[in-house]
């Protein structure tokens, strides 16, 4: 890693004058010499000075190749302090700790080295996708950590000496959900989108019929940057919306804006390919030339008994069915997982019919709010909260936990039902029970040690509970509803 930050410009908030060398900088340890310097400082502080350890303070984290050491050095390269960050679990779930924060005697008290190292560790953790970041600190360091925004998480003992576990509040999923969905409640006040029982759902039942209507607009920057993929996504997101409602697809309407016919052809080529793959015919639409890139697609389906997202109740099991095939879409690493373009039509049909064949109490497909934010939308509509087990979430080998929980995953569907009731076979997808609905609001993340951290703190959209589902139009078809144990 190159230089992490210039503390004059970042941590202190004021850029250093041009040509003036900073008094000290913080970098990640680059070689064995750096690590040897850090080990020497640790021995001086924790073994010789504080006598917390006899002989050596080394532990398993020092032998973990994932461990990162940040070092503060003055302008001449002399070591002033250091701290390490290391993964807690064997498989990286995003649970990391900061430890062995040490500052030389000469640098203590007046330079802010310790404070800067803590801030640098927090910045590194957030950039690296850490979801739970903690430090076990001595009593004398607790006030500094508290001033920096850390929160106490309980007493601990290290080498027979009382310590305090401190936790850095990481709000990645809350920020994502707020950015994507928080304005909806005020904007849609009085409209009751979806109608009674389906407010905020992926599709809207058309009153007096068994029709389900869904509509999605693709982000204009994506249309401009990758028109063929945008066209494919226009079908994909609508197919998933119908699937979440347990609807059988009928067809699509599209509205395309393009600067010229050549660009429109690229968007439509993606639409055609996806419409064929998903067996969702394009029934009609509108095309406008000489305008900025834009794409909106409306889907129609049929369901005599639509599955709501607001049908969940405390005590029910949360299950995720996700297609783990594929890889990150080129140019969208960490944001968009492409599991669908290589799937056959029969595989896509098996995926998108899983809710209809299961008939769960509630369902919602994972959208741009990510897995955690989408589950927050389901719980909001259901008038309750959820606990999500981080280690139990199905995840592709090539995706980090933080990216997977916040990306658009191609096909991923939450279903909620009574404990022990399975989910119908979903073809190439992986299904796993990974949480539960509980009283309250928001989504909590449960870790292997049983601790809970905040995923989203409360309502995601502001639309509130969906209310009671209105009576179905007709009888639920017998069909292929044979829930399978997961």
Describe the 3D structure.
The chain has 486 residues and is of the alpha+beta class. The chain has twelve helices and 21 strands. Strands 1-2-3-4-5-7-6 form a seven-stranded mixed β-sheet, sandwiched between helices. Helix 4 (172-181) crosses helix 11 (370-382) and helix 7 (227-244) runs parallel beside helix 8 (261-278). The longest helix is centred in the N-terminal third of the chain and has 18 residues, at 32-49. This is N-acetyltransferase domain-containing protein. GO terms for molecular function: acyltransferase activity, transferring groups other than amino-acyl groups; thiamine-phosphate kinase activity. Residues 18-171 form the N-acetyltransferase domain.
Brief summary of the model shown:
The chain is α+β, with helices and mostly antiparallel strands. It has 12 helices and 21 strands.
Q: Can you count the helices?
A: 12
Structural class: alpha+beta
Helix residue percentage: 25-40%
CATH class of the largest domain: Alpha Beta
Largest sheet: 7 strands, mixed
CATH superfamily of the largest domain: PurM-like C-terminal domain
Average pLDDT number: 92
Rg, nearest Å: 26 Å
The CATH architecture name of the largest domain reads Alpha-Beta Complex
Widest sheet, order of strands: 1-2-3-4-5-7-6
Shape: elongated
Q: Extract low-pLDDT stretches.
A: 1-5, 472-486
CATH level 3 topology of the largest domain: Phosphoribosyl-aminoimidazole Synthetase, Chain A, domain 2
Number of strands: 21
Strand content: 25-35%
End-to-end distance: 42 Å
> How many structural units, i.e. domains?
3
GO molecular function, one term: acyltransferase activity, transferring groups other than amino-acyl groups
Domain N-acetyltransferase: 18-171
GO biological process, one term: thiamine biosynthetic process
InterPro entries: Acyl_CoA_acyltransferase, GNAT_dom, MSMEG_0567/sll0787_C, MSMEG_0567_GNAT, PurM-like_C_dom, PurM-like_C_sf, PurM-like_N, PurM-like_N_sf
């Amino acid at each position: 890693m190159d230089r992490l930050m210039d503390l004059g410009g970042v941590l202190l908030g004021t850029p250093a004058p041009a040509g003036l060398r900073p008094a000290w900088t913080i970098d990640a340890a680059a070689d064995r010499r750096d690590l040897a310097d850090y080990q020497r400082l640790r021995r001086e502080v924790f073994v010789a000075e504080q006598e917390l350890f006899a002989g050596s303070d080394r532990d398993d984290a020092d032998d973990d190749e994932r461990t990162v050491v940040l070092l503060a050095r003055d302008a001449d390269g002399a070591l002033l302090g250091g701290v390490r960050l290391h993964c807690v679990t064997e498989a990286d779930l995003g649970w990391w700790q900061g430890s062995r924060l040490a500052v030389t005697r000469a640098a203590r008290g007046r330079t802010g080295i310790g404070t800067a190292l803590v801030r640098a560790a927090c910045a590194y953790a957030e950039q690296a996708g850490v979801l739970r970041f903690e430090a076990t600190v001595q009593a004398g360091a607790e006030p500094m950590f508290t001033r920096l925004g850390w929160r106490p998480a309980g007493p601990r003992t290290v080498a027979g000496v009382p310590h305090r576990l401190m936790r850095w509040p990481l709000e990645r999923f809350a920020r994502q959900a707020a950015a994507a969905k928080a304005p909806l409640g005020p904007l849609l006040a009085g409209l009751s989108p979806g109608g009674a029982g389906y407010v905020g759902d992926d599709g809207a039942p058309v009153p007096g019929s068994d029709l389900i209507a869904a509509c999605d607009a693709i982000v204009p920057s994506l249309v401009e940057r990758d028109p063929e993929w945008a066209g494919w996504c226009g079908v994909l997101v609508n197919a998933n919306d119908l699937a979440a409602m347990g609807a059988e697809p009928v067809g699509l309407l599209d509205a395309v804006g393009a600067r010229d016919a050549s660009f429109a052809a690229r968007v439509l080529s993606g639409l055609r390919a996806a419409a064929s793959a998903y067996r969702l015919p394009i029934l009609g639409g509108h095309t406008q030339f000489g305008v900025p890139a834009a794409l909106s697609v409306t889907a129609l389906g049929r369901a005599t008994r639509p599955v709501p997202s607001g049908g969940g109740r405390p005590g029910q099991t949360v299950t995720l069915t996700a297609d783990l095939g594929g890889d990150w879409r080129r140019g969208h690493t960490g944001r968009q997982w492409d599991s669908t373009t290589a799937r056959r039509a029969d595989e896509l049909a098996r995926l998108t019919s899983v809710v209809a064949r299961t008939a769960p109490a509630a369902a919602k497909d994972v959208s741009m709010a990510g897995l955690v934010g989408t589950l927050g939308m389901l719980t909001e509509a259901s008038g309750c909260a959820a606990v999500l087990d981080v280690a139990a979430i199905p995840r592709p080998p090539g995706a980090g936990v933080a990216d997977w929980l916040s990306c658009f995953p191609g096909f991923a569907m939450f279903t909620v039902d009574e404990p022990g009731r399975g989910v119908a076979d979903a073809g190439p997808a992986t299904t796993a029970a990974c949480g539960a609905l509980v009283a309250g609001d928001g989504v909590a993340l449960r870790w292997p040690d049983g601790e809970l951290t905040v995923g989203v703190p409360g309502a995601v959209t502001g639309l509130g509970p969906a209310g009671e589902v209105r009576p179905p139009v007709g009888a639920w078809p017998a069909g292929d509803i044979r829930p399978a144990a997961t």
